[in-house]
Target: Tyrosine--tRNA ligase
Amino acid sequence: MNFVEELKWRGMLHDIMPGTEEQLQKEVTPAYVGIDPTADSLHIGHLVSVMMLKHLQIAGHQPIALIGGATGMIGDPSGKSQERNLLDEPTLRHNQECIKNQLSKFLDFDSEEANVALLVNNYDWMKEFSFLEFIRDVGKRITVNYMMAKDSVKKRLGEESKSGMSFTEFTYQLVQGYDFLHLYQNNNCKLQMGGSDQWGNITTGTELIRRVAGGEAFAMTCPLITKADGTKFGKTESGNVWLDPERTSPYSFFQFWLNTSDEDAERYIKIFTLLSKEEIDALVAGHKEAPHMRSLQKKLAEEVTIMVHSKEEYEMAVEASQILFGKGTAEQLRKLNESTFLAVFEGVPQFTISKTELAEGINVIDLLAEKTEVFPSKGELRRTIKGNGLSINKEKIGDPDLIVNNDYLIADKYILAQKGKKNYFLIIAE
RNA sequence: GGGAAGAUACCGAAGCGGUCAAACGGGGCAGACUGUAAAUCUGUUGGCUCAGCCUUCGUAGGUUCGAAUCCUGCUCUUCCCA
Model:
């Protein structure tokens, strides 16, 4: 199966320029996607582009990840209703390093083969480019009429846009287009890929290559990832889902994929894992038989967590999930060693309390509503207890007069309070 | 500039002198069910030293034994006429 066919059955192909497939069959083709270095970590929204590069490398072509240092300083108007904040250079370099680190989990940057992955930063060639040179060498080749015809521009000039569009943003597509030209001339790069919202920007590049270099270059986009319920993909209540374990713990990362809805799971597993068509077909069939087993979600979460983090992190996440959602019991909880315990409850709101005070025994209500802010008011806590909604160390508390003392400590240090099923709070005795 | 209506808890919206911490709907939270889902059902949704008490109905005063409810000033909102 060739690269294009591969993307096609995975549902990762939205639009493709005629001739692209032929080009890929002809020779080892370098192709790039752009990545905005707005943060020092990728998030799962970037993952689709990364997977495209990965498939590209597997198919024997050369993946190029372009860090949009220069373009990130401008801001892509596509899909944005407002101007973007600009990044300074030190931040940019830092972000670039972190991103490269993450990419190396997916792409082979050290191969001896011709299809070794490359990482470039367009800031490196844009920073020396003077304005005069740019408008003479690049700007001269593209008409404003052409640029105005792009959807991303039209939208910003249209009536629904309140803020207007700066000249800086207007030139964005030229700068991105020039990247393509630069890579075409220096790396023989003939293909640019990206999300379907990038089509306009990409074709500016192919147009530029045709007019400046007389060459032929190609474009390919993948559909934007959507969710069946219409909410935005890749977001949780707590924000973006990052690849960086410091920003999103492997446990939360795992949970994100596990909680994928049935409607979305099939699409996602094709896009975000490297499982073969046969394997996925079997999983989908199995899932239809027994949807409550959620075999699709489990496999999806497993594959992606291992790929982004590691097998160990995955196993830890499964273990944590069992304690939190499975038949986790008080004994199981007490059996955990401290480091696992902390990993399981990493990211859970924490409160501290003095150990000596606890030794004397504290009433549950005082402990959770006064000494700590697990509950905002005592009344609410009382209601929760009445409604059978409070657990301490995985055991239901029904008595509002309960006295908590050192006997409740896990690993001689922690008390786990639980509001309802899903809300955990960690109290640390010091 | 003139006139009218209105401002109630997270949101919408009842209440028009005592029985009002305030109907009802939405949302939130919790319980049951379940697949860590959806739907459904149940409870709860100002605070506290919790069968009681305290602070809330735009804001500041007033009338009254008693005010979300009546009166006055102020602020804001909406509508109509200039």
User: Anything to note?
Assistant: Chain A is about 45% helix and 15% strand.
